[in-house]
Specification:
This protein is of the alpha/beta class and 435 residues long. It has helices at residues 15-21, 26-37, 63-78, 82-88, 95-105, 117-131, 137-156, 166-177, 194-205, 217-227, 239-243, 300-309, 311-362, 370-395, 401-412, and strands at residues 2-9, 42-49, 53-60, 90-93, 186-190, 209-214, 231-235, 248-251, 272-276, 291-295. Helix content is 52%, strand content 13%. A 6-stranded parallel beta sheet has the order 7-6-5-8-9-10. A 4-stranded antiparallel beta sheet has the order 2-3-1-4, with helices on both faces. It is elongated and about 110 Å long. Belongs to the glutamyl-tRNA reductase family.
Length: 435
């Protein structure tokens, strides 16, 4: 069984392509995961879809079949040709796939390196797949280790200190175009998801007043309550009135189509700055030249500045990711070694007890000596198996481990897969503090 990742991100696709690839609701994700898992060689899959990336994380016995299934599924979902999907995709296999997932979880592959939002998004993607039966043993182990790796990167580097996310990059750009100070201005925030909440927090911290618009007033009010000062909530239907009154707007909904259209715009005598942080885009192209629209990809300059400042920390972080990648495969080999050793010892004990029982029935051994004989045989087998057991544990950390393990399984006719089913535990499944 191998791990593969098919990745589309800000690194290999522009926003127009990512809009077509994006999954705007759980039903779309579920249908695509079900289609991928219809392929017999694919036994587990996770779909990660954010404004900056769409990735399939898969456990498969046939990578070629798995890739064919993923490209076919994305073709039906997005309308993009198979040829374009294959040409744009970054494909990672086995160690490369594990390294990539660890780097993503550690926010090293993000548009803004060090932003912590991706950890929550990966956790949500894993939880969705896990709760719907799309992943279990193999990918749970992978995600478990990914979050351990991300935690060490966070604790051992300063890459996430004073983090700059896409949301805060947008606020930073707004501050620059408004003369370096947002104090006294009002920013309109459309949507009440995580991105919108981050924007609202950064705006308030910059001295800006905030008005939130969302179809669910309750969700918007909860955000306003959690932030506290300088923040109000207005009904979503009143948005057209407000966008023509204020200069700053930030939109980050999960709508499948634009929610701010050209026909909603009135001419004004002042410059307006709108930040569209959604994929697909929330804001339609407008004719009014006084409106400056920034999409996710337009924040690249701020992102690049951030990257240069964090280059040294990123190097240290990648060293941690590399170490965790090696440790992960060693851990997997250990998981295979332990049940193998246990099975060999159980078979030895079972064989010895059968022979003791047969010897007593034949009259070769007096019944009253059974306990002493069993103890003798048990000690003999323990001594005999001591060196092989020690050697097996040592080989778990060597490149030839897989070959040795498979040879032992063949010689003793052992299948450890069933015995390993409960040999993992991802304590991060239900935690809310990994964001």
């Amino acid at each position: 069984m191998q791990y593969i990742v098919v990745s589309y991100s800000h690194k290999n696709t522009d926003i127009a392509v990512r809009e077509k690839l994006a999954f705007s609701n759980d039903e779309q994700k579920k249908k695509s995961l079900e289609k991928v898992l219809n392929v017999k060689s694919i036994n587990e899959a996770i779909l990660l879809s954010t404004c900056n990336r769409v990735e399939f994380i898969i456990s498969t016995s046939n990578p070629s079949e798995a890739l064919h299934a993923v490209f076919g599924t994305l073709h039906l979902h997005s309308g993009l040709s198979i040829e374009e999907l294959e040409g744009r995709a970054d494909v990672y296999e086995d160690e490369g796939a594990v390294h990539h997932v660890f780097a993503v979880a550690s926010s090293l592959d993000s548009l803004v390196v060090g932003e912590t939002q991706i950890a929550g998004q990966l956790k949500d993607a894993f939880r969705f797949a896990y709760e719907n039966g799309f992943c279990s043993q193999k990918l749970s182990r992978l995600i478990h280790f990914a979050f351990k790796c991300a935690a060490e990167v966070r604790n051992c580097t300063s890459i996430s200190k004073s983090p700059v996310s896409v949301a805060s990059a947008a606020v930073s750009q707004a501050k620059e175009v408004m003369g370096g100070n947002l104090g006294g201005y009002t920013g309109l925030v459309v949507g009440a998801g995580e991105m919108s909440e981050i924007v609202a927090k950064h705006l308030v911290a910059s001295g800006c007043n905030v008005i939130i618009f969302n179809r669910s007033m309750e969700r918007a009010k909860n955000i306003a309550k959690s932030i506290g000062e300088r923040i109000d909530v207005e009904p979503f239907h009143s948005l057209p009135e407000y966008i023509n009154r204020y200069r700053l707007l930030f939109s980050a909904t999960g709508a499948p189509h634009p929610i701010i259209t050209d026909e909603m715009v009135d001419e004004s005598q002042f410059e307006r700055y709108w930040f569209d942080l959604a994929v697909p885009r929330d804001i339609e192209i407008v004719k009014d030249k006084s409106i400056n629209i920034y999409a996710v990809d337009d924040l690249q300059e701020i992102v690049n500045t951030n990257l240069s400042m964090r280059r040294e920390q990123a190097r240290k972080a990648y060293e941690i990711v590399g170490r965790y990648t090696m440790d992960f495969f060693k851990w997997l080999q250990t998981l295979m070694i332990d049940p193998l050793i246990k099975d060999i010892r159980e078979r030895a004990k079972e064989s010895a007890m059968k022979e003791v029982e047969r010897a007593i029935k034949k009259g070769f051994i007096p019944p009253e000596t059974r306990k002493n004989v069993e103890k003798l045989v048990h000690n003999a087998f323990n001594n005999f198996l001591h060196t092989p057991t020690k050697q097996l544990r040592e080989v778990a950390e060597q490149p030839r481990a897989d070959t040795v393990i498979e040879a032992m399984k063949y010689v003793f006719n052992i299948d450890t897969e069933v015995k390993m089913m409960d040999k993992y535990k991802c304590e991060f499944i239900m935690k809310d503090d990994v964001r």
